[in-house]
Write a structure and sequence with these properties.
single chain, 460 residues, mainly alpha, Growth Hormone, Chain: A, 1% strand
Amino acid sequence: MNNVDNAKVLKRRIQGWMLFDWATQPFFTLGLTFIFGPYFAVVATNVFLESGMDPKSADASAQTIWAWGQAISGIFVAIIGILAGAYADSTGRRMPWIWAASIIFVICSWMLWYMVPDGSALWFSLIIFSVAFIAAEFAAVFTNAILPSLGTREEIGKISGNGMAFGYIGGIISLFLMLCFFFDDGGKTFIGLSPGFGVFDPDQREGTRAVGPLISLWFIIFMIPFFMWVKEGDQPNIKGGFKRSMQELKVSLLGMLKRPSLFSFMGAQMFYRDALNGLYAFGGVYAALVLDWGLTQLGIFGIIGGISAALVSWISGKFDKKVGPRPVIYFHIWVLIIVSLCIIGMSRVSFYGIALSEGSSLPDIIFYICGAAIGGSGGGIYAASRSMMVRHTNPTRPTEAFGLFALAGKATAFLAPLLIGIFTYLLNDARLGFAPVIGLFILGLILLRWVRPEGDIANN
């Protein structure tokens, strides 16, 4: 195969790899944040109201069980994902794991259809969604491990950023399709059509429940080129089994202790990325429970957040190139702290104790701004974090470095949902349940002080 053919194969491989973000993003946009999550919260609230709870307690209970589901999922991802990822790195085989996770994801996503409005499938749907979440995260761990083989150290950042932006665009388009043709809010879609072109029953919320099959079919269609174009490459099948892979993982983790800048960066990421995931997972639930938003408003909220994410990620990349990633990370953390403070202090009738006039649109305006900030700073902080990881990467061991990067994002993935669940339960308030998120962001800020702006690779 000549150089021209090699270049074409590599280009296709990169394009296929980027399609993974496009294929999976609807699960997080439609499922986790803007459609299924809030719909689940509303159904759960109604179930608790019918059991005799007062409205405030019902809202808090709905948020609590959603938090527990996310927390348990995060624990599975953190523990099993780390072990499976180490084993895959040791053997050099990742595609079988992606295939297995994809099959589970497709089945479980489709079964979200059975989340009927009477709440009879409430716990079943929570379990199914949690399994789908675990499968999606597993697939992402192994797909990210392919990234270092797609280009040079300089090219990887661009490829990674383009894939992330591409995924956001896919999330926006899928949300637009859901709002216009399927989702029913008051019996009609966003553009006034009957849900599913009149096929779906609005009384049974079938248009909203179609989010599951839509996520599943979208994934199937756009993962076809991924599996066609992305190959394992020429990595050897290193024999040694599970025991050897665990030994290698132990060496990697102990080696991190000898690199203070890398160690501090990993710790900072664990906290601020976990806090950000908490905002992603509960932003829509908060809007549904506290602000009484309908799913159409949540859809618009999602579109604003997605557009902001793509735009701010691009702008952040410009500043990253000019001043480095650490100032960019600092800026976005402060933005997200301000957003979290707004969420805690705002309700439908007041803002930090200041009474609002009946029917005031101020809470809606503030939260739309918050949505743009969450989307923009979420994209910007992830892009800058990946850039900072490159500055801590030994060129001879890039897979190990990106494995640690994935570990930092998943090791405490349960923490924010767990704390939100605990605080919501103890305080019996869906707003105050967000308070731990601010603490996690602050811990991330503190640890960033010991991160060298240019990394520590020169010392290794």
